[in-house]
Structure formats: C-alpha cells, structure tokens
Amino acid sequence: MKGSQKSVLVKTLDWVTLTADVSFYNADLNDQQKTAVMFSMLQKEVAIIHGPPGTGKTTTVVEYILQAISQNLKVLACAPSNVAVDNLMQHLTDYELKMIRVGHSSRVSSSLHLFSLDAHVSTDKYRDILLKKVDEVMIKNQKKGSSQSFLSPECDGVGIPNGPSGSRENLQNGKCQVK
C-alpha cells in the first residue's frame, strides 16, 4: 500500500471510530453541523468552518469547543470583533465552563464581565502574593533611585515601565485593570 493510500485508510478509520464515539451536547445539530464538528475534531492544527449568516456556524463552534474540552484539550477562541467573542461566550455560559474573556473591560459585554481577565485578577487567590511582590519591587526600586513603576497614575495597567506611580490601594481594592 502506498503512503497516500495509508493516509486515506487511517483517516477513514479515524472517521468511523469518531462517529461511533461522539455524543453531541446539542441534540438539535443538523447533519452538516455534526459533520463539521467531527471533521474539526480530526484536524491536528486548524479547521475552518465557513458559511453565510444564519447557517449555524456559532452553534457548530460551540459544539466543537465542548467536544474539545470533554477531551481535556485547551481552547483559545478568537474572533474579528468583540461582539463576536461575546456572542460565542454567551452561548457557552450555559455549560458552566472555566472561561476567561481577554480584552479591554469597556468592550466586554456587561453580562460577561465576571468572565473578564480583570474580574479573575481581582478575585484570584494569588492576589495577595502579587501585591507583596509589587511592594518588594517598588521598595527595591526606591532604594536604587529608579524611576520605574508598575502602575499608571489612573491605575489602568500593570507592568508599565518608566511611568509615574499609581495607587497601591486601587490595586488592593481590585480597581486596577491589567493591560
């Protein structure tokens, strides 16, 4: 058997095995959506789901994400607009997943704010350790006479070199946003 024939045989066997093992989270998927999910699951790097508006691409991507997570895979979902990311996350909120929405907090839908990076940082169990480290670095820099700082004047970012000092109290109170 030639190499390309082996590849087709392996893909066919993978497809048969996959179709027998998949139980879909959304029972309302049509055949094309199920096929797209299974096709995506077989890809090693990238799968593209393309179609006109209203054809169920978001529903298909949500199903794929749920399938990937059920296999203990990590998922990074991106979209060309904040609205598209929020739409995808809104569909996923019903499944009680551990998700983090990265993006400027003013552009995250208010219903998804608890998934924002800012919300995670302000409630993180390691926050106190971070505050202690920030104090240590600031004291060390002051002793050296360094003008480097980690907080902007409005406390709107962490890790900004050479900026004026921000308020540690704002960081403690969870009012700082990570840039």
UniProtKB/TrEMBL annotation:
GO terms for molecular function: 5'-3' DNA helicase activity; DNA binding. It holds the Pfam family AAA_11. Residues 164-179 have a biased composition (Polar residues). It comes from the Eukaryota. Residues 28-144 form the DNA2/NAM7 helicase helicase domain. Keywords: DNA-binding. Residues 145-179 are annotated as: Disordered. The keyword DNA-binding applies. GO terms for cellular component: cytoplasm; nucleus. This is DNA-binding protein SMUBP-2. It comes from Nephila pilipes (Giant wood spider).
